[in-house]
Write a structure and sequence with these properties.
The chain has 334 residues and is α/β, with parallel strands linked by helices. Helix content is 54%, strand content 12%. It has helices at residues 3-23, 27-39, 42-51, 71-84, 108-115, 134-148, 163-171, 186-191, 194-197, 211-225, 248-262, 268-294, 299-311, 317-328; strands spanning 59-65, 89-94, 121-126, 153-159, 174-179, 200-203, 237-239. It has a 7-stranded parallel β-sheet, with helices on both faces. Bound molecules: guanosine-5'-triphosphate and magnesium ion (MG). Magnesium ion (MG) binds at residues 71-72, 96, 105-106, 157.
Length: 334
């Protein structure tokens, strides 16, 4: 057997072991599985392949909104309620180091709760590493790992201000957008196109001035934008004071309502998921192509070599890209 065959067998065996332990809910296996997936290792890929038949059973809920809008606080309360119902809850938080809460985030409360006795709660922060696949892909894959481990609900917290967040949002079955009475950041959120992706709006911090006005604004923009995007679900706008646990029951009702809407008589959940799968296939293919094409291209090294010279304006970035590309995939013109 060649060395690479041996390695490949080793990976398959490790993925198989992980998959088996995962399915039994072994927390260390879950954590390792997610790490593999996050790092994009061959074991991670083999694992995802192996567990695929076990995925698709959970309800994936994206919780997004501007920095400091109360996402972690809300996720904490939501997961409590779900645990009370006897449901197993996985929480994935992306880049929880916004300048707002300075990294204390993801509610230390829930992390601690998870770390203690509760077997039905698993919490993980996803590092936004700049891997080829990006954090959105890693998060999606992590949610598959959690589903394979038998978690019924996957709550995904992400700051809703950019393209990659929008990708995360797109992967959820239900997207909850949190806004606060003060406008400010909301503009950014709207620019990112997340308004259009939201299934449920929550105006949090209703204990502050201006909640009603904000709700009214959202209602108005829903009317203007024509909320019935190919379906009859009308995104509700709900008030909440997450820090006091107010509005959580109503929110859960709406999330359930949305899921029921997706799974009603016809196959809208199936269709919605197929759309997502299609986007995912394209993204996976892009990543695999890029991976394969750049193998051995020493991109990182070359970047490092070039950085100083480009910063000093000795060569232009455009020239650099052309040079790298020429080495990497000769155009055949020579
Ligand atoms: N007044 C008030 N404060 C709240 C409410 N909900 C959350 N907070 C506070 O707002 C701050 C930010 O809450 P987080 O839950 O960390 O917000 P977040 O959206 O997760 O923040 P990032 O992850 O940093 O983007 C905390 O100090 C919370 O206690 C609310 O309804 N009213
Ligand atoms: Mg947070």
């Amino acid at each position: 057997m060649t060395r690479s065959q041996e390695e490949s067998r080793g990976r398959t065996a490790e993925a198989a072991r992980l998959a088996e332990r995962l399915a039994q809910g072994d927390r260390r296996a879950i954590a390792r599985g997610i790490s593999h997936v996050e790092d994009g290792t061959p074991v991670g890929r083999a694992l995802l392949d192996r567990i695929y038949t076990l995925t698709g059973r959970g309800h994936r809920v994206g919780i997004t909104g501007p920095p400091g809008s109360g996402k972690s606080t809300l996720v904490d309360h939501l997961s409590r309620r779900l645990r009370e119902r006897g449901l197993r809850v996985g929480v994935l938080a992306i880049d929880p180091t916004s300048p707002f809460s300075g990294g204390a985030l993801l509610g230390d409360r829930i992390r601690m709760r998870a770390a203690t006795q509760d077997e039905g709660l698993f919490v993980r922060s996803m590092a936004s590493r700049g891997s080829l696949g990006g954090v959105a892909a890693a998060t999606y894959e992590a949610s598959e790992v959690l589903e394979a481990a038998g978690f019924d609900w996957i709550l995904i917290e992400t700051v809703g201000v950019g393209q990659s967040e929008l990708e995360v949002v797109e992967l959820a079955d239900t997207t909850v957008l949190l806004l606060v009475p003060e406008s400010g950041d909301a503009v950014q959120v709207m620019k990112a196109g997340i308004m259009e992706a939201a299934d449920i709006f929550v105006v949090n911090k209703y204990d502050r001035e201006g909640g009603d006005r904000r709700s009214q604004d959202i209602e108005t923009s829903l009317e203007i934008s024509g909320w019935n995007r190919g379906g009859a679900w009308r995104p509700p706008v709900l008030p909440a004071v997450a820090s006091r646990g107010e509005g959580i029951v109503e929110l859960l009702e709406q999330i359930d309502g949305h899921f029921a809407h997706l799974t009603r008589d016809d196959d809208s959940l199936g269709r919605a998921r197929k759309d997502k799968i299609e986007r995912r296939l394209r993204a996976l293919l892009r990543r695999a192509l890029l991976d394969r094409a750049t193998r051995g291209a020493r991109i990182d090294e070359r970047l490092e070599e070039a950085l100083d010279r480009i910063a000093a304006r000795e060569i232009s970035p455009y020239r650099w890209v052309e040079t790298v590309l020429a080495d990497w995939m000769p155009s055949g013109e020579e």
